[in-house]
Amino acid sequence: MTAxxxxxxxxxLVSGGLLCLAAGIALVxxxxxxxxxxxxxxxxxxxxxxxxxxxGLRLRTAVDITTLVLVGAFALVTAPVAxxxxxxxxxxxxxxxxxxxxxxxxxxxxxxxP
Amino acid sequence: MRAVAVCLTVLLGLAGALTLVRILRGPSVLDRVxxxxxxxxxxxxxxxxxxxxxxxxTALPVLVVLSVLGFVGSVSVAxxxxxxxxxxxxxxxxxxxxxxx
Lengths: 114, 101
Prior knowledge:
- The structure holds two protein chains of two kinds.
- Chain A is mainly alpha-helical.
- Chain A has helices at about 1-30, 35-60, 60-90.
- Chain A has one domain.
- Chain A has three helices and no strands.
- In chain A, helix 1 (about 1-30) packs antiparallel against helix 2 (about 35-60) and helix 2 (about 35-60) packs antiparallel against helix 3.
- By secondary structure, chain B is mainly alpha-helical.
- Chain B has four helices and no strands.
- Chain B has helices at about 1-25, 30-55, 60-80, 95.
- In chain B, helix 2 (about 30-55) runs antiparallel to helix 3 (about 60-80).
- Chain B is flat.
- Chain B starts with a helix and ends in a 5-residue tail after the last helix.
């Protein structure tokens, strides 16, 4: 049982690390802010949750798992808000590459001048 | 578990280095904010992985503090960053005096 939990924890931890590496590569290679934001949400939510699950599977005490659940819940609540603020600021200040957009639903409703 | 620790060190180290490249190269403040968010997520993952490797829960409250600090920092910078103004936008006193964003 202990060995199984350790293997599961190892798989979760390495998966989270791979997602972090994917975000790092995407940050260097992707062309503009919005596409980078698309890639950076992965370690911030899924990667973080996987690492926390792996950590909880290794620690296995109620107090530690409660702390980890708190961290995960906080990440789930705050990541969309932070991404929304950054994306809105980017759009309103014209830092979005419009030639890369497939559709722009805000095009008919131009925002106020920044 | 040692192999997993080595693997995680390489993965997270590479990810952090690539993120630092983006923080250095910019080009805008928002790019750096996004990259700093990712760097913070990588740091949280590293601290959690360290706690998992040593079975030592001492560093877990640090994770809570780090997530709070990262959220507040990125939101406030994004809120107040105007960045480079688009070339067509002419600054008018009305829009400058009304920071309702």
